[in-house]
Each structure stands twice: as structure tokens, then as C-alpha cells.
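Handoff note, outgoing to incoming analyst
You'll be picking up this chain. Sequence as last confirmed:
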Amino acid sequence: MKIASPRLLWLLVLLVPIVLVLIRNYGFGRHDLRVLGGRGRGQELGNVYLVKSFFSGLFFCLFYVFAVLSLAGISWGQTPSEDDRNGLDIVLAVDVSRSMLAQDVKPSRLDRSRDIIRGLLRELPGTRYGLDVFKGTGSPAIPITEDRMAIESFLDYLSPRVLTSPGTDLERGLDTALAMFPSATGRFRAVILFTDGESQEGNPFAAADRAQKLGIPVFTVMAGTSQGTTIPVGDGSVIRGSNGEPVVSRANIGVLDDIARVSGGSEFQLSDPAVFGSLLSAVQRYAGEKAIGGFRLTDVLRYRIFLGLSLLFLLFSLAVRVVKWKNTF
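Most recent structure output, in case you need it:
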């Protein structure tokens, strides 16, 4: 069972004041009946009023509960439906931390990633692209668009200077990419992640799991090698640690392989001379398989059941009050 809008269930808390109001109204009504009925009929009228008030209030509360449940979007079970989606949206998530300046992949991890992205922009017609850059946080640099020139122009300025946050947080980078897709779209979706896999913060596997639940595969491109290398600063020197020794940045293939596996994507290595062709083929294959699949499983919404019950109990609540109970007591 799934609930589309679980926050709406908090409306059930309002049952408490509703019940208190019903009890208060019952007390006022019983007092008025005693005044109007006098000693002779006061007890008889009070008994009828008690029963009618109880059932009317009970049915009204049930009406409210099922009305809230219908609004919450509860579903269970799945049914095959025709998949009429077409086109592909890709978010390019690029790590711009300083480790991406390492040159174990020539001319550098970041420059090589930039070259691959430019190739993808030219080879996938009909595809819309968005650009997400991240370090310690993520930033949607270019929203999903058909304007490829806008992305190409931004690539010229891609460097660690575009973001000021320190460190690397793969989870935030992936979450930013996932949030860039339009909420209502008839297109297929995918993320292509360029990073060396180093992440000082966050849980990238949690983000990969969220991607899998959204049906968005993450194609990871490992920028760098497991042997690693130093990180140049730009003046001929390299970044050094607190102990004065050069910092060696090593690509974390295990993390990237797990992200791809969990999300339903594939993992590639930027150091592979055939990486562009392999990545392009994988994305084309993904889009092609989805386009000819024909059907997809969709959750079956059960709001009609709860809506029908809520209207039925509302009718019962009104009927109890309206219908005259003669010779009942």
C-alpha cells in the first residue's frame, strides 16, 4: 500500500475537536429537551436523543475519516497501462570540487568530462538537457532545456570557482539533479554523473535509492583512476595536507558502481578510450528499450472506495437526524 500525500493524514487530528463539539452540542440539546418536554416526556425524549446523537455523530466521524483517506491518495496493487511517453530528459551532474583538477585523466578529470558532455549534446537529437554542478552542495546551473548552446556556453566557465562550498557531497549533488526534472512530464529521464566518487559528506546510496524509486537511472562516469594523483593548484604547486605532504586524490570506483547498480544505471570510466561510445550506446539503448516497451505498471488509486464510503456515512448521519423514530422507546 502506498500513500501519495501522507501529510494529509494529519487532518485526522481534527477528529478530537470534532468529537468535543459533538459532545458539547449533545449536552446543550439534552438540556433543551428537558425544558421543553417537562417531567413526563423528558426522559423518553432524552433516550431517543441520546441514541440519535450517538449514531449521527459516529457516522459523521466516519464520513470525515474516509474523506481524508480519499484525499490522501491511497493505492495498492498495480496494473499494466500503455506507456505513451516519448523523448528523453537528461540532467548532467558534474562534480566541480578541486579534486576534479587532477590530471590522471588527460588533460584533467574536469576537462575530459567537459569533452564527453559536448559530444553527448551533439549525438542525441531530440534530447533535452539540464546541468547540475556540485561540491559541498548542489546547484542547478542550467534548467532542463532544448537550448544546447546555453549548456555549451556554461561549460567554458566550468571550474571549482563556480561554487564556494568546500568539500564534496554526492548525495546533495544527486538530489539536486533529481529535483531538476519537471514534476509532470511525458518523457523518460536519466542522470549522467561525472565525479571521482570522493564524498566527505552525505549518503550517496540513499540518493541512488530515491532515484530508483522515481524510475530515474544514474549513469556514473568515474573521473580519475584508483591509483590517483596530486591536485595542481595552477601556479605549478599542488595541494598539500595539514602534514605538509601532497594530497593524492583517488577515484572511488566502488561508490560509483553501487550508485549505478542501485539506481538501475551503468558505470563507466573516464580513463577508458572508448568511454564516449560506450556511454552513448548505453543511453541510446535505455531510451530505445523504454520507447518500445509499450506498457508500464502503474499504481491503482483506491480513492473511489474511500470517497464512496465517506458519502455513504454522511448520508447515514443525515438520515439518523431526519428520520422520525416513532414508538421506539
